[in-house]
Amino acid sequence: MADLVLCEPTELYNILNQVTKLSRLTEPNYLCLLDVRSKQEYDESHVITARRVKKKADEYLIPESVDLECVKYCVVYDNNSSCLDLIRDDSDNSGSENGTGKSLIVGAAIECGKALAHLTRHPVQILRGGYESFSAKYHFFRTQKIIWMPQELDEFQPYPVEIVPGSIDCGKFTRTPSDKIPGDMHIKSIVNIIKNSGFSFVGDADKLLHIQIEDSPEAFIFPFLRHLCHFIDVHLELGNVILVFSTLGISRSCGVILAYLMHQNEQTLKKSWEHVKKCKNNVCPNRALVAQLSQWGDDCSRRLHHRY
């Protein structure tokens, strides 16, 4: 029997935006997102790709097409569950569902999750704060769409993942970016790590840093790392959300973010890597870049030692 764990809104957001060549939402055994709210609430709006779970008597009816044993992520949400305990509301029995004085259960997601736990190999995740919290932060992932065709999932354009929520995002290059993603994610500053990208930036030039680095084992990014970290520091102090991007968003951009986490948090490459990997499962800096990051970590350690 699998455990129940809480899933932060940012974690679900990042799960929804993982990619290989296409969005991972195209994989049938990647994510099972279940909505246990009422039909009216679900029809008004729900999280993209979520399926409504019906309840008959005291049993939750999982969609027949879902094989929970094979699913990597099973996430369940209700309106606003914020813990893993079932809470019975005995304050007003007259308002109970059947008028018999039976107490109401607050936390349908937890109740459903416990019913599903014996069907899964991985922990069932309960969305902290439920739909209310997630939709308030990621309103652009609300939908009324119930059925997703395979072609629609193939064409789904993921957003950048959040490495540091509300501060640092990581994504891949788009030649003609619309205002939608920067606006939705409140992105104010951009770090571009592509050589001759043709990226056009509309806005204050001081909020764009373009370091032209080729995606090759010969690329040398080490001399730019201090400048990159300084740029990120300055714009975070200004309260700006920063997007770091490269061609695929898996090597150079991740390398810059790893360097910044080592610099800012005074931590090892291994620990920084573990954090980025949790947010973005296809992080893959090339070997030369990893060697330079290791050297950067040594430099960060020396600077820290001299400080004290």
Automatic annotation (TrEMBL):
SUPFAM superfamilies per record: (Phosphotyrosine protein) phosphatases II, Rhodanese/Cell cycle control phosphatase
MF annotations from Gene Ontology: protein phosphatase binding; protein phosphatase inhibitor activity; pseudophosphatase activity
Gene Ontology CC terms: mitochondrion
Domain (Tyrosine-protein phosphatase): residue spans on this chain: 159-302
GO BP of this protein: negative regulation of stress granule assembly; positive regulation of intrinsic apoptotic signaling pathway; positive regulation of neuron projection development
Superkingdom of origin organism: Eukaryota
Entry-linked PANTHER family: SERINE/THREONINE/TYROSINE-INTERACTING-LIKE PROTEIN 1, SERINE_THREONINE_TYROSINE-INTERACTING-LIKE PROTEIN 1
The name this protein goes by in its record: Serine/threonine/tyrosine interacting like 1
Gene source species: Myotis lucifugus (Little brown bat)
Gene label: STYXL1
